[in-house]
Specification:
alpha/beta; 8-stranded parallel beta barrel; 8 strands; binds 3-methyl-2-oxobutanoic acid
């Protein structure tokens, strides 16, 4: 097995037990070096299918494959030693049947060493979640704005504007909870709906664009690190990586063109005549 789960990681029951006690801190990670930097500071590292848009430049997450999730999942497990690692089941890898979801989950867990999978699920997928949990697969749910539903929804749209939509999202969260999710991501909903969901489910809620009433928070790390020109309303930027990379690349280009890089300090010389 390429990745063994190391002892000492935060466990699924430990995350579940944080509800009402301490806020759950979570960020996405897709590579080993970034996972290593984030690991000491977070409770959960999520290998989200946002990897498709963030790393691979895809327009939506729907083209992300199980193989991509496994490759990035292996890197994140290798790069971390403390946080619970959760990996998204991508579009098309779990919807056909509970058996398909189980086969995909087992591949993801066995080939990466992660501890849990995440499923974007409406009420219809509750039996699939129950099927997985009853067979030993810990599942994180994901309700509200579900990026994998981008084509059905006609875009990435916040949820809960109408009474019908609020009822539907609340029902999704309750169904995920009753099916056995150990935590539920709540994305892109108004604060009042996030509060209602958080109060009505036993599992901790992890909000993204769902206000501080949730039991924890998650952000796409590249968003909060300032990698992109556009920052969504619900993101706070904690760094300006984009400016740092741009400035570094410009300075490197100028130095190479001026022949001032490599300089004396960056050159190998083994003998005086070299
Ligand atoms: O894919 C992802 O990164 C996610 C988070 C934004 C919750 O689902």
């Amino acid at each position: 097995m390429p990745n063994q789960q190391r002892p000492g990681r935060i466990t699924v029951p430990a995350i579940r037990a944080m509800k009402g006690r301490a806020k759950i801190v979570s960020l996405t990670a897709y590579t080993a070096p970034v996972a290593a930097l984030l690991d000491p500071h977070v409770d959960v590292l999520l290998v989200g299918d946002s990897v498709g848009m963030v790393v691979h430049g895809l327009p939506t997450p729907t083209a992300v494959t199980l193989e991509m999730m496994i490759l990035h999942g292996q890197a994140v497990v290798r790069g971390s030693s403390r946080a619970l690692v959760v990996i998204d089941l991508p579009f098309g890898s779990f919807e056909a049947s509970p058996e398909q979801a189980f086969t995909s989950s087992v591949r993801v867990m066995q080939e990466t060493g992660c501890q849990a999978v995440k499923i974007e699920a409406g009420e219809a997928l509750a039996p699939t979640i129950a099927f997985l949990v009853q067979r030993g697969v810990p599942v994180m749910g994901h309700v509200g704005l579900r990026p994998q539903a981008v084509h059905i929804d006609g875009g990435f749209k916040a949820k809960g504007r109408t009474a019908d939509e609020r009822t539907r999202v609340l029902a999704e969260a309750r169904a995920a909870d009753e099916a056995g999710c150990f935590a539920i991501v709540v994305e892109g909903v108004a604060e009042s709906l996030a509060a209602e969901i958080t109060a009505s489910v036993a599992a901790p809620t992890i909000g993204i664009g769902a206000s501080s009433v949730c039991d924890g928070q998650i952000l796409v790390s590249d968003d909060m690190l300032g990698m992109f020109e556009r920052t969504p309303k619900f993101v706070r930027r904690y760094a300006d990586i984009r400016s740092s990379v741009t400035a570094a690349a410009a300075q490197y280009a100028a130095d190479v063109r001026a022949a001032s890089f490599p300089g004396e300090a960056e050159v190998y010389r083994f003998k005086p005549q070299d």
